[in-house]
Amino acid sequence: MAAIHMRESSEYFKGLDSQISTALYKERLLSGNIKFVIGVITVKRKYKKSSHSKSPSYLLHSMALIDKTVKWSKYFDSSVPFICNVDLNPNDHKDALNLYAYLPYSERYGNNSFNAPLLTLPNSDSTFKSWTKHASKYNKETVDYSFCLRTAAYLKPNFVILIEDDTIPHIDFPTILEHMIESRLKSLPKYAYLKLYFPPKWQGFAAELSTIFDLALWASIMACIVSLCLLLLSKCGLRFSHDVLMIDFSKYYLSLQCISKIPLKNKAFISLYLVCLITIWLLGRQNVEALRRLWRYFYRLEQANGCCTQAQLYPIDVVEALSEYLLSVPVTTHTDLAISDFAAERDLPAWQVEPNLFFHNGLITSLNGGQKHPEEFMFGL
Q1: What is the pLDDT of residues 70-82, one digit of tens each?
Q2: 164 shares its domain with 274
Q3: Do residue 245 and residue 175 come from a single domain?
Q4: How many structural domains is the chain composed of?
Q5: Each residue of 79-123: pLDDT tens digit?
Q6: SS3 for 65?
Q7: 181 vs 152, 177, 265, 315, 370, CA distance in Å?
């Protein structure tokens, strides 16, 4: 499947006129009225080569989908994507270099297509480019994130969206984001960020009040639907040659005999509800919550969890402060936790969209080139 996506993405860019593509984005940049700047943070993946492995080329796939979205979605018609290449040796990142002919870009340790000056560190004459040694891999990741935020802010958009190169948008991303920003978030006070992706493996049912409520809610909906179907069947006069055994919770068997109608007594409904409860739990919250994709009004805006930075949206008025804050945290602090701490310290709410508006397909990590367990991606298939 991944090979098919990469081939389709490659064919997509081959079919583009690079001059028309760059001219379009140049025109948008010169307009001075940019709604979204979408930065895709990328480094060359370090992976173990074998006779059966090739470069994962995550950037190619994500940029193809982002480019399509920004060019064809009306809500993004004044928006600009860019490749934020934070590799220490940007010229070695061939996947990024191959896309420079079609898309704006900025290199932390090289050039940019915006004719922007070298970005300096806050209250210093030093530049991001001159900072080549980092105390830890997490420190570099955090400084890279700060650089990409500052690069996006340089273009003066209304919102900044930063995504990692192994993250791809859902087909409903433009529609749902428009609904969230124009209908939901406008009525809320100032916020730190909107999380567009949270790992599905941590979205299951747990011993938390919110997920317990979800379990009860979905079980109630399922029980009502099943009850309605049974009633409709009874109205149709359907007959069965045997009893339908529901479940045995006590001394007696509880059964429904479908002859001319189906009586739903209290015990029957309780048994039915328990069956639905177990069914929903076995299906998993991740899969059941996917039903919310049927209508934009079903999507939920929840308090954000701290973990992960695969895809996040920031209002422009917090970007500079956040960028500075990330450069001041301890060198062992993970980027996602630093961003969460920033929101907490400034008493700003942080929100999260459910279901996710992005998928994560990064089997090979950018931090150490290690391979994640495929089970982590089962809910995104």
Answers
A1: 999 999 999 999 9
A2: no
A3: no
A4: 2
A5: 999 999 999 999 999 999 999 999 999 999 999 999 888 998 988
A6: helix
A7: 19, 6, 46, 10, 36
